[in-house]
Every structure is written in structure tokens, then in C-alpha cells.
Amino acid sequence: MKHKTVQTLILASILAVAAVASGKDFIYVPTVNALQIIDCEKDTVVKTIPYNDYIVNAMFSPDGDRYYLNAFHSIYVVDTQTDALLDTIKLSTSLNKVTVLAFGISADGKQLFLCCSIVKKKQNIPRLNVLPPQFIIYDIDARKMVKNYPIPMAMSGIVPLRNDPDTVFLVGLDIHKLNLKNGKLTKVTGILNVEQGEVAKNSLVIWQNNSPDDHGLFTNPYYTADGRMGFFIIDKNTGELSTLPAKDVWFAYSTIVSPDKKYLYAVMDELIKFDMSTGETLKAVTVDKGTYYALSMTADGKKIYAGPAGADISVYDSETLERLSVIPLAGDGVIAHRLTKN
Q1: From 48's CA, which of 28, 179, 206, 328 has a CA 20 to 30 Å away?
Q2: Residue 274 CB: number of other CB atoms within 10 A?
Q3: What backbone torsions phi and psi does residue 327 show, to the nearest 5 degrees?
């Protein structure tokens, strides 16, 4: 019996490795008026899905079957199995303007989490009613809001947790945890509103460069009032928040962690590679095409994709940071994400 159990475990391991090896990587890039899909073997655009909007954020469902695109007043839903536009969730009406500033997806993929600004008006009455910022839980199948809670202003990032369906991190002027059952908001750490003796920070959370099957580490750069740089790290598996001080100061919009968790990459006008254990700068290269916002990596960690910002993405060797190619896009964009399909 013991011998059969060992054989079963070995077989399962072989099948798991084979599944990973057989997977194929794609980069999904929402540009103005079109979602473009890049084949990471060819490093060329292989599919374009048109729409008439500008996308400010996007996120895959936990199982990777859906890609949700935030266009402020609407959410576009893409079926990643067929690579077709499946649905458009319109959030605003003529009398209610709903603007989504941040969004996330529940661990079971059934709900959208939305940080919203809501302005209401009445017919023929020249007065607007501006509501306090709201956290909305939206049921995707039922196509309706099921809960809403008032939240502080300027919440630009929602970080759902993989193993705690009742909690999300909200990141804005400070970092909070929100209990989705009762709406209780707990401050985890200050960014601008720090405790006495602590140094205020500046951190803009818009880009979440994670993929559905990655390690679950969300990172974001911060800058302190006394001139230092570091990174917030949220482990979406454990719900733990930590920081990594950087040895040097670089300007960066967003970051991504290598699959083996040894390296952290950041991008703005340079692509920078950091040691994940020490915060030391290992290498940096100037981004020849100009500023880039987002970063994506292949599942094996060998290639890193910088961009977009303008109408292109640059491909780099993640070890040497040598630029391998530039992929032209149909238009400007701000985000991109890797999806591995088996």
C-alpha cells in the first residue's frame, strides 16, 4: 500500500510538471478601443478585440476564465477561453453617475469589488447629490449590487485575499482591511496619516501586475518624506503586510516579483531589478521607448514585458535586462497582464 502511495505521488508530480510545461503564455493588453493579446512565444499580437472605450484598469478572475476591464463607468467582460467580448456591465445611468476608481474580484469569481464615486441628480432639478465614497459588492450573475459600505476617499487599490473570502485590503491615503460581512474598516498602517514618530510616505496603487497562477505577492513602491524608497508587500495567501526598504532611490510606477520570489522588478523611465531579500539594486537599464507603467512576466520568469504607456511594449531578458524586441500596439494603454493557458 505504501509503495502504491509513493507511485501515485510521483505520478501526480510528473503530471503537474507536464501541465506547467505544456502551458502557453499570453499577455493581455487593454489599449484605447481594443484589447490586444500577445503570444509570448512569437512576441507578436495574435488577437484584437475591439470596443469603444478607454480602459484604466483590469484584472483576471481567479480561475483565469474571465478578464474584467474597468472603463470608469462600465466593466467589460472578456471570455479568455474564446477570447471574445462576453458582456458589458454598465454602472451609470442618466441620473446616476458611478465612477469606479478601484476594483477587485472575489476568490470564487462570483463578485466584483468596486470603490466608487457616486453622483445623483433628479430630473429637471439643477442640483447634484454627491454621496460619500462607497465600497460596492456586485453580484455578477444577478447583475446587481448586493452590499455597499462607506469608505474613506481616494481608495485607488483593492487587493482581495485568496484564502480569506471575507477580507480585502483597501489602499489609498493609508492601508486598511475591510470586513466584507459587516463593513468594519481596520487601519493596518499609515501612508500619509502615520503615527507619531513615523515618517509619512507617498504610494500610488493602481497597477496590480499579478497573474492568476502566480505566487500571490502584490508589491508597490513607496517614497518617504525624508527621501527614501521601499516597497509594500501584501501576501494574498496569508493576508500579511510587510515592507522592503530599497538601498537606492528610483522612480517607479509599478512592480512585479519573479516566480521564484528572488527578484523584484520596477519600471518607469528605467527597468530596475532588485534583490528581493536585501532591497539592493542588481541592475538597471533605461527604457528606450520612454515611460512605461506596467510589468508582466512569463510563467518561467525568463522574459519580462515592460509597458504599455504609449502604443508599444518592450520585451526584456529578465536575467540580463537586455531588450529583446518591441511589440507595436493599436493604441495607448496603461496596463497588461500575463495569462497561461494549458
Answers
A1: 206
A2: 28
A3: -105, 115
Measuring CA to CA, how many Å separate 164 from each of 157, 211, 328?
17, 18, 40
Give residue 125's pLDDT. 86
Cell of 107: 476568490
- Cβ atoms 312, 269 nearer than 8 A: no
And the C-alpha cell for 264? Answer: 523584484
With beta carbons less than 8 A apart as the criterion, state whether 272 and 265 touch.
Answer: yes
Identify whether the C-beta of residue 306 lies closer than 8 Å to the C-beta of residue 288. Answer: no
By C-alpha distance, which of 60, 165, 145 is closest to 100? 145
DSSP H or E run through 324: strand 323-328
Q: Using CA atoms, how far apart are residues 295 and 254, in angstroms rounded to an integer?
A: 7
DSSP 89-100: EE---SSEEEEE
pTM: 0.92
18 within 8 A of 326, measured Cβ to Cβ: no
Using one digit for the tens of pLDDT, what is the confidence trace for 77-116?
999 999 999 999 999 998 999 999 999 999 999 999 999 9
Rounded CA-CA distance 193/179 in Å is 21
Q: Which three cell numbers stand for residue 207?
A: 497597477
Residues 244, 235 contacting (CB under 8 angstroms): no
Omega of the bond leading into 328 within 30 degrees of 0 (cis): no
Residue 180, C-alpha cell as written in the block = 466584507
> Measured in whole angstroms, how far is the alpha carbon of residue 256 from the centre of its chain?
10
CA distance 25 to 30: 16
Domains and CATH numbers, the chain: 24-341 (2.130.10.10)
